[in-house]
Amino acid sequence: MEKIIKLENIYPDLSKARSRGSKAIKYLNNLFELTSAQKKLGLKKTFFVRTYGCQANERDSETIKGILTAMGFVQSNDWKKANLVILNTCAIRQNAEDKAFGMLGALKALKRKNKDLVFGLCGCMPQQEKTIKEVGHFFKEINFIFGTHNIYELPAILENVYKYKKQVIRVYSHEGDVIENLPDYRENKHKALVNIMYGCDHFCSYCIVPYTRGTIRSRDSLAIIKEVLTLKKLGYKDITLLGQNVNSYGIDLGGKYRFVNLLEDVAKTGIKRIRFATSNPWNFDEEIIDVMAKYPNLMAYIHLPIQSGSEAILKKMNRGMKINTYLSLIKKIRKQIKNCTISTDLIVGFPNESDKDFKQTIKLYKKVKFDNAYTFIYSPRIGTPAASVVDKIDLKTKQKRLTKLNELVRKYSKWNNNKYIGKTLEVLVDGKSKTDTNTLTGYSHNWKVINFTGNAKPGDFVKVKITGSSLFSLNGKQVK
Ligand code: SF4
Q1: Mutate to test the pocket of ligand 1, among 204, 206, 319 (most ligand atoms within 8 A of CB)
Q2: Ligand 1 centroid from CA 210, angstroms
């Protein structure tokens, strides 16, 4: 029988996470191999993974589910009945952390009734020392914690938990190498997320991501293309290329082969629909627009987070972008890509944001008339520079500003949607609408949500005549 190696606990350290190494990244293609004991560990056990936060986390959860499935566990859709529960957490805002803590409380209560329940925490939250302290204080029942850089260790972690009944904490502060060929479990059979890079080196002053996800590591382009071609063969129709800032793709590899080159090569695979996220405006390569205009399988959708309309605030955010440069970028996109949907992210109430700063955000919004925006009240993240600034703006003022901004978001979303009434759009069908089972739902080529009547199946492309619009979606009828 194989010996199970006892794992030492490793705790996170934000100051180590802040320091960036200069070592070249290695690509490890054959790191992951299960022992025969690990392959049997999950037999007759079920698992449930809850994912908080962004698409990078969603993709990590697919890897976690893939590993668990390879170990013999079977997915359960009810966390109360599962033998193993994993919370893959997000640290970007306090409310995401609060939700995970709420769920930990529920699991703690469940464990009082079901002693055999095993549960653990992973993702961005445990990359911060403060979370480990809080979790350690409130939740002694938790069986294991691991970080974003060592998902591949999950089999060994679970072996230690089940065999030695010890609490395992394994959170590396430094990112490791790029690990390829981990198992995965994609639930969606026509839409897929594809990582093109990990980490971020930009250090926006409010953002915890460079600490929780480490320095930039671009994947090898050939591995990415191979993954896309495999997905195409499997019948996938829509892929999203993922990175914290896709425009920085390749910088760590010398910068000769950039995101625009990758995008064009992915377009040439012929997969039906391709989009990307996230694409920050300060290093958005204008050649991307030319490539998007050239290949019809590149979706007419760009998410371009600006965060504030005030240059003074942008400077404080370490996102020193000139508003005029942003506006000319939007102009070029709209000129070259027909009906391109443009969305953005906006933070209100950044420390000491004045009325004048906020008015500039409103002014920018009215000028661009975004299709949509993800708006948030600034949430301090311990360890980031912005969190140590003394903020004189009270919460009530911030809430009022958010309400005002959201009114505009709704207004322009509807205004943009109305333009499509009477038109016929091609829709990739997702399935039945969650709110009305007599209605189907899907997305257009320019990433508009379309609810419609018809008889199509998930993964079909159909033509839909748009008959009306709601605040954030279009309504229609399938046509021949
Ligand atoms: S670009 Fe800025 S906001 Fe985006 S992940 Fe990097 S530091 Fe955070």
Answers
A1: 204
A2: 7
